Amino acid sequence: MYLPPHFNAKDPAIALELMRTHPFASLISTDDEGLPFVTHLPLHLLEEAGGLRLLGHCAKPNPHGRYLRDRPRAVVTFLGPHAYMTPRVYPDLVRVPTWNYLAVHATVEATLREDFDDKDRLLKHLIHDHDPAYADQWRGLAQDYQHKMMQGITAFELRVTHLQCKVKVNQHRPEAHAGMLAAYEAGNADERALAGWMRRLGLAGHVA
């Protein structure tokens, strides 16, 4: 992605936090005609000594599984909070609007997982992430039903080979920070989240 130096978040902890708190990602690879093919799906992040891996699955009829098998290199994107920024936050009038956001792009190498145990482990990670109260119910389902459900999905691991993280909150325009922070803190959930990131990054200006 286009990543000017002043928006490049080099602290890997920021990228990891965004990947965990905004796990509904876009998996992008190429179809048989060389065009981008996108699947929107939740992914579970594993941070291990050997690096980062993303676990996920799609429906068996989705051709993305075949595309990943044939062309394992892909890109995964995560979008964090984002919001419009009015030029009215500047102390002068000769300004234009913009859009602020946080995003992560990960280049990955895919490996398909066919074994029941691998699929079961992957699903248990996702259940733990999003609905831990369901875990006992899943374990209590009949084995034949579980196997039938597993046959309906394509599971995969995505090994992260390169990571980019963009934090665009007008860092390079300090004259707007005070007005921007006040506007965002009075706004919707995404705007309040951006205000929180501004404070974390030390962009709070003179607003207490």
What's this model, at a glance?
By secondary structure, the protein is an alpha+beta fold. 32% of the residues lie in helices and 35% in strands. The chain has one domain: Electron Transport, Fmn-binding Protein, Chain A (Pnp Oxidase, Chain A, Roll), CATH 2.30.110.
Main features:
Pnp Oxidase, Chain A; elongated; 35% strand; 7-stranded antiparallel β-sheet
Structure report:
The protein has 208 residues and is an alpha+beta fold. The protein has a single domain, classed as Electron Transport, Fmn-binding Protein, Chain A (Pnp Oxidase, Chain A), CATH 2.30.110.10. 32% of the residues lie in helices and 35% in strands. Strand 1 and strand 2 form a beta hairpin. The longest helix is centred in the middle third of the chain and has 15 residues. It is elongated and about 65 Å long. It starts with 11 loop residues before the first helix and ends in an 8-residue tail after the last helix.
Strand order in the sheet with the most strands: 2-1-5-6-7-4-3
Q: State the name of the first-level CATH class.
A: Mainly Beta
Mean pLDDT figure: 95
**Weakly predicted, low-confidence segments:** none
CATH architecture: Roll
Biggest beta-sheet profile: 7 strands, antiparallel
Rg from alpha-carbon coordinates = 20 Å
Distance between the termini: 34 Å
Topology, pairings included?
Layout: H1 12-21, E1 24-30, E2 36-42, E3 44-48, E4 51-59, H2 64-70, E5 73-85, E6 98-113, H3 116-130, H4 135-140, H5 143-150, E7 153-168, H6 177-185, H7 189-200
Antiparallel strand pairs: 1-2, 1-5, 3-4, 4-7, 5-6, 6-7
